[in-house]
Every structure is written in C-alpha cells, then in structure tokens.
Amino acid sequence: MQCRKRLGKYLLSPSAFQEGKYHRQFVYGSVSSEHAKFCMFLKASLESCESDTRPQGLFMDIICFLLYSRSHPMISNVHDSSEVAVRARRKAYRNIILPLFITSVIAYLDRINLSYAALTMNEDLGFSDAVFGLGAGIFFAGYVFFEIPGALVAEKFSPKWWLARIMISWGIVSGLMAFMTQVWEFYLLRFLLGAAEASLYPVLYASCIPRWFVPRDRPRAIALMLASLQISSIIGAPLAGWVLGVKFFGMKGWQGLFIIEAIPAIIFAFILVRWMADSPKEAQWLEEDERQWLITQFEEENARKKSKKNYTIWQAFSDREVIKLCLTYFLWITGFWGFGYWMPTVLKSISNWSNLAVGWMIVIPMMLSLFFMLWIGHRSSVTGEKRWHGAIGTFIAAVGLLCGTMSNHPIWAFFFLCVTAIGIYAPFGVWWSYPTTFLSGPAAAGAIGMINSFGNIGGFVGPYITGYLKNLTGSFTLGWIYLAGSLIASGLLMLTMRRNVDLEGS
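The structure corresponding to this sequence follows.
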C-alpha cells in the first residue's frame, strides 16, 4: 500500500492504481507522452530528495516502481509495448496508407482528367460551357445514389474486395468515355462513372483507416493518404498536357487520355487485394504482439465510444453533429469542385499558354497545397485541435478566389489561384478524422457515406453553377464570387463543431 501511495504522489492517484487504470494508459499511450510521465516521476523524486536530506528517497521511489511493476507485467513491459506500437504504426503506414494512397491517386486521375480533356474535347464535340459544367456535375449524382449502400456493404463484408470492385468498374467506364460523340452519351457515362466510384472515400475513412490508427493519429494518416489528390494533379496535369497533343491509333489526344488513365485502375485492383488486409487479424505481415496491440487499441476506442453513446445507423443519420457536418461539407465541396474542374480552363483563358504549359504550371499550386495539407494534418495530430485547423483553410481559399476576380494580370491571377489551392486542400486530413472520433462500425460507415453524399451534391452544384454563370455573363467573376461565399459559410460552420472530441486513450 505504501508503494502505491508513493507512486500515486508522482504519477496518478492511488485509487487509479488500485482500479488498474494506470497500466492501460501507460502502455497504450504514445511513446513520447509516456516517456515524459516517467521523466516527471524521476524529476519529482529528485525534488523530493532536495527537501528530504535522505538520498535514499530517490532510490526508494525507483524501487517502489520496479516492485510494483513486477506484479503488473503490463507496466514492466512498457518499453517493449512502446516499441511494438512504433513497429505496428510503421507497418500500417506501409501496408495500409500506401496502397490506399495509390488507389486514391488513380481515382483522382480518372476523376479530374475531364478538366484537362475539356481543353480540346469541348471544341471537338461542340460542348458549351453549360453542357460541360452539367456533365462534370452529373458524376456526383451517380455518386450520391450508391454512396451509403456501398459503404455499408464494405463495412459488413470486406473493404478491400469492395475497393477492388470499385476500381475495375470505374476503369471500364472511364475507358468508354474515349468513344463518346453525343451529349447524352457524355451525361450517361459521367453518371455511370460516379456510380462506379461511389463509396470509395467513405470506405477509406470509416472502414479502413480507423482499424489501424487511433484518433489522434488519424489526421496525419488521412492527410498522408489524401496527399494523393495533389500528387495525381502533379502527375496528371503535365501528362494530360502532353497527351492532348499526341494522336493514338487515329484517336485524338483527349480520347487517348481517357484510355491511358483507365488502365491502371483495373491492374491495381488485383494488386490491392493481395497487398492489403481488412483488419489486423488478417494481416500476415504483422507480428503477434503488433497484431494484439492494434486490436486492443481499436476495441478500447469502440468501447469508449459506446460507453458515451452507442449509435445505431439511424441515430447517426439524425445526430445534430452529423447533420452539421453534411451541410458544412456540401458548402466546402461546392467551392472545391467548382474551382477544381474549371481551374485549367480559367488558367488558360487568363494566360493564353499552351495546353502543355498549363499542365506544368498547375504543378506549382498542387505542390504548395500538398505541403500545407500535410503540415495542417500533422499539427492537428500534435495538438488535437480540429475546428480552426479546418476553418482557416476555407477562409484562405475564399480570399484567393475573391482577390483573383479583381486581377487581370496573369501573374497576380496565378498567385491567387495558388492561394486558393492551398486553402481549399488544407483541411482534408483534419476533416475526415472528425466523424470517427465519436462514431464507429456501421454507424460511422453510414454517416460518413451521408456526409460525403452531401458533399458530392456540392460537387454537382459547384461546377454547374460556375459554368452557367460563365455562359450567362461571359466571365468567371460571378462564379468565383459564388464559390468564395460557399467556402466562407463552410468555414463558419466548422467553427461551430464540438470543441472536445473523444481523444482519450489515443
């Protein structure tokens, strides 16, 4: 008993030791925080010895610690457990985040290749700005219809096999777009492409990443995975600029672009199912102690959530915080895709650069936005703060759009385009870590599917309204102002989210 009291004086209360809370916190916490706890323990012991002239005080405290740990193996193995945590995280990044990153790169290439194809395709097929804007947006109509059912199916059965199905489906549809000639074919194939890709990101956010990363690690993990958005543009923009100027077997450049970027999706689907595991229980590349650490983390997090509120799917759908997230994401993605789909066209119109030059110049804002998105994700993981880390990005993007409308000089217009890209991409890692802090299992899959569905409605609205206003006024100015207003409203709503999310034990 005396031993427990002396330890409790420096670390936790004696009652915490008696209830067994300390060993769980000690072992399953981060390496750095637990190292700090032990250092504080030693520092407190030294300070005690200064006032207590008995030099044996320090040694008595250490002996107490060691004696107590002998009867509690979880404490005595803290170093091994911390090492296990580091190894488990490292393998999860290599075998989960990396294949998901590649999947997302391919998905985003097939999603945005239309914005580059438009540089020549619209003229070849006689598509107006309004037709193109509607076609770009119809993708998200197909996405919305199958979003929630797909996320629930993946959660119930197998995320990796569902992802493989998605990739094969969208690869086939994307390749077929090379052969469209009519407006109705354009609309139909874009709808089918959205239906094929539906539930991709909800499965990543709700069914894959939470099984491998604790809440505090998720902003960093998601940000690393979503670096794929910029990487796909960094790769895809120059590639598209080059392909548009080349003929393939009698086909025009934009036709070759759709085919070239469809093939990797089909091939990587087969690689994915061999590489990934659905859960730590199935991962052959984990050692047994690593597997148990990951399983324990996931189970303790779910138990903690259920102790506060055990959400059903329907309770998650009607939860005030989830509804708020839906509206926030709708407004943000309205601006995101309105800007994303029209960015190459706007850049070419203000600069008169060649298609290849436009492709290479887009690399610059994508590189800058990549850096800031990773930095914001890392900072949020370190601090645990989410609201301001997300909202500031949308405010910056809005400023970039508004200032861009006031500048006719190509250099300044390009500068503000870079500012917009930085702000509009920055919050992603933080954003998608938030729902999983209070939802799990089917409730998380369904809610994230619903949030993403609302966002994808914005993905329809943003490009279409921007194209419509361009057709109406002959300028992108009014469309840019509309997108900026949407981003500001999104940021304000982000600031109303719950300040304290469940990061205990992470």
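The chain is about 80% helix and 0% strand.
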